[in-house]
Amino acid sequence: MTQSLSSSSARTRTRFAPSPTGFIHLGNIRSALYPWAFARATGGDFILRIEDTDLDRSTQASVDVIIEGMAWLGLDHDEGPFYQMQRMDRYKAVLADLIAAGHVYPCYMSMEALDALRERQMANKEKPRYDGTWRPTEGKTLPAIPEGVKPVLRFKNPIGGVVAWDDKVKGCIEISNDELDDLVIARPDGTPTYNFCVVVDDIDMAITHVIRGDDHVNNTPRQINIFKALGKEPPIYAHLPTVLNEQGEKMSKRNGAKAVTAYRDEGYLPDAMVNYLARLGWSHGDDEIFSRAQFLAWFNLDHLGRSAAQFDEAKLKWVNAQHLKAMGDAELAQHVQPFLAKLGVVADERLPSICGLFKDRCDTLVVLANWISAFYLDVVPNAEEKAQHVTDAVKPALAVLADKLVSCAWDKASIAAAIKEALVETGLKMPQLAMPVRVLVMGTAQTPSLDAVLFLSQREKIIARLKNA
């Protein structure tokens, strides 16, 4: 061989190898999460490889979303990103070695002839496949080479026997070699094809475990045969079941799947997304909510599910809400800052405490940011709630409370005492006074404890809102 291929290592080496032919969605990114987790759980390496040989459909924008989405989720790679288009010389060198070893041959069958062959096979209820017209065998006379036709290169698939592997998800899989025709591994212009490039990459990068979607199962026997032709043992395979959308269809861009980065923009926490995605095809007993550290401590390939998992946005929001509640106030304040910036909020030292007061009521950072904005921006009360609660009958009591808040110490206990004094003087019950105050201060009657809300608000703003009611 023109370059020695790396021998497999005892150290775990996994990879994520997306094609940048569209934005990456949750179904795709789960195929990054598991190999990343397995590498981290076993002290191994995680490699990012961009399979960009489809020049017509590959875009830099799609590459950017892959990198952005993985960075947001904290799926850090140890090597890469490697781009297949930058490795063409390497593929062609290995291809030349295969040709020299007699594993590859030129095929001059035109697309028209191939289409006609398939039509005949289908009419005879046979499986459409290349019939080996140009495959050289002992004693066989090949057709005359047509003038001006550039051939494709086909891999001589073994005849007879089976390709078998012990899949870490699906168990033992056996495919008869006679079911596989001779794969095209280089186009007429000499560009190598997907199944060949993948094998060379996995050998050169010493990949020990290939964890990918089960839409690749049909590629696996072909790739194993190429590994063996190159004198290498294939990696361990784990083919993950499909992720379905909420309608029970395969998750895809055509079926309305969103880019991973859309969930970032909608206010989901990366650790919550990792938690949710992990459960779409893997489990640790009945544990639903867990940290990233717990996930990595528990993760192995033995508990990957065999059944398709279905995406459920309501469940994702619930998981996100649990992570919001569990997060420390100071850390949560950092996460919510970008969403506050979009609202024009410049926060201050009150922010962590406000996060702590409202996080139990929120399922996304966007919802939390909207609550927080009431402490920094002008509030427009809900019209229906204002009409219901801020009545002419209660306005004198609001003025009484405003006067008491002018002079009381600004802490929760003193504010609570001022509210009680106002209730005694006006003869109102707590809901009769608290509801209109909440509407004026926060824009809605449904808020946490009134004394806690007022304490975190600015005294001058509160007094002005109560007096101008």
TrEMBL record:
GO terms for molecular function: ATP binding; glutamate-tRNA ligase activity; tRNA binding; zinc ion binding. A motif ('KMSKS' region) lies at residues 250-254. Residues 13-318 form the Glutamyl/glutaminyl-tRNA synthetase class Ib catalytic domain. The keyword 4Fe-4S does not apply. It is an enzyme of class 6 (ligase). Its main location: cytoplasm. Residues 331-469 form the Aminoacyl-tRNA synthetase class I anticodon-binding domain. Belongs to the class-I aminoacyl-tRNA synthetase family. Glutamate--tRNA ligase type 1 subfamily. Monomer. This is Glutamate--tRNA ligase. It comes from Limnohabitans parvus II-B4. The lineage of its organism: Bacteria, Pseudomonadati, Pseudomonadota, Betaproteobacteria, Burkholderiales.
